[in-house]
Design brief:
- By secondary structure, the protein is of the alpha/beta class.
- Helices cover about 35% and strands about 20% of the residues.
- It has a 5-stranded parallel β-sheet with strand order 2-1-3-4-5, with helices on both faces.
- Bound molecules: flavin mononucleotide.
- Flavin mononucleotide binds next to α1 and β4.
């Protein structure tokens, strides 16, 4: 089962579209579940919210997980951090995970590898491929996406 987590204060964003595209290119099918973190609302600000718990269960049952964020101030968003903080250390149980970030320029192209990946690993994600960074202006047609897919496909569960 493939799952997308999108951490963008703006729902239905290009970041979400890019994450869906990545899953389609990796698996040949649309994601089974898309969690647009902003839809979880104020439950993210505390512990034990039922909607957040349901979203966590979906994430934990994934075989393939894409976690996507726009780049804000050189890192992933605070909204995404609120959701990731809901997981305990190792809780993801080594689900195969691909960190993806969109940005306005290449100035922060290492941000997914240096900022998002370590947090995902801390909560138990297995991130076998390099993290993916795409420009918001050309994420659909970028040669970086094709190059990355060649590597990432080796690690996508069948
Ligand atoms: C508050 C804010 C901070 C941003 N900071 C950065 C940044 O540090 N580096 C960068 O490349 N783009 C930055 N951007 C641009 C966004 O990362 C970029 O437009 C994003 O990929 C848009 O994704 P979306 O269309 O899914 O919202 C910023 C945008 C906003 C709104």
């Amino acid at each position: 089962m493939s799952v997308v987590v999108v951490g963008n204060p703006k729902p239905k964003s290009r970041t979400r579209a890019a994450a869906e595209l990545v899953v389609e290119k990796l698996t040949g099918a649309a994601p089974h579940h898309i969690i647009d973190v902003i839809d979880l609302g104020a439950g993210l600000l505390g512990w034990g919210d039922p909607k957040v718990a349901e979203a966590k269960d979906i994430v934990k049952s994934a075989d393939l997980l894409v976690v996507a964020s726009p780049t804000f101030k050189g890192t992933y968003t605070g909204v995404l951090k609120l959701f990731l903080d809901q997981f305990g250390a190792g809780e993801l149980g080594q689900v195969t995970t691909f960190p993806v970030m969109l940005g306005g320029s290449y100035a922060h192209s290492l941000a997914p590898e240096l900022t998002l990946r370590p947090v995902l690993v801390e909560i138990g994600a297995s991130c076998p491929a390099p993290s993916l960074y795409l420009l918001d202006s050309d994420y659909e047609t970028s040669p970086e996406l094709d190059n990355w897919l060649e590597v990432a496909r080796r690690y996508a569960p069948a």
